[in-house]
Amino acid sequence: MLLLWPHACQGTRIARLGGASLGRTGLALFTDGGKYVVARMDPGMTMMDRVYKHEVHVTAAAVDANGHANNVAYIQWMQDAAIHHARATGSTAIAESIGATWVVRTHRVEYLRPVFAGETIRVLTWVANFRKVQSLRKYKLVRAGDETVVAQAETDWVFVDAKTGRPRAIPDEIRNTFSIVSKEKEP
What we know:
Strand order of the largest sheet: 4-6-7-8-5
Largest sheet: 5 strands, antiparallel
Shape: globular
CATH architecture: Roll
CATH topology: Thiol Ester Dehydrase, Chain A
Low-confidence stretches: 1-41, 43-48
Distance between the termini: 28 Å
Radius of gyration: 17 Å
Number of domains: 1
Structural class: alpha+beta
Strand content: 35-45%
Order of helices and strands: EEEEHHEEEEH
Number of strands: 8
Helix content: 10-25%
């Protein structure tokens, strides 16, 4: 399954781009191939945020015939968390400005406990590494009510040209928007 990241980037921010922050305006400026791009920063994020937290309310629509959240719902929550994280760091705005996007190569999910309608799940996500054209993102899904880990997962993302779909090298401007979380520092 290939999933394209959406192209909307409203409310995003730029972090550590080798560019300039425009003070208290919440804007950041960077150059790419001689053009200047400005994006609004998310006030809830700082450059030191390594693990992004995204809350999901489990709806009845996510529940399958077995009476608990369907496996596909977990994948959607993971993708939503990854998209929100990328927007919050400014990565999405940069990718769009250079005509690139991310697609999924593989998902691996370990389901540990069932999740039911009415529960709130916290999706924790972080970038574990960058390679030439790929990046490994990890997830921990936690039931907010009792802090039980309900699933652990990872997605291998491939950076591609948005028009051709061909892989392309991940530029430093993208790499610098995320802090890598080593295995020892994972939540």
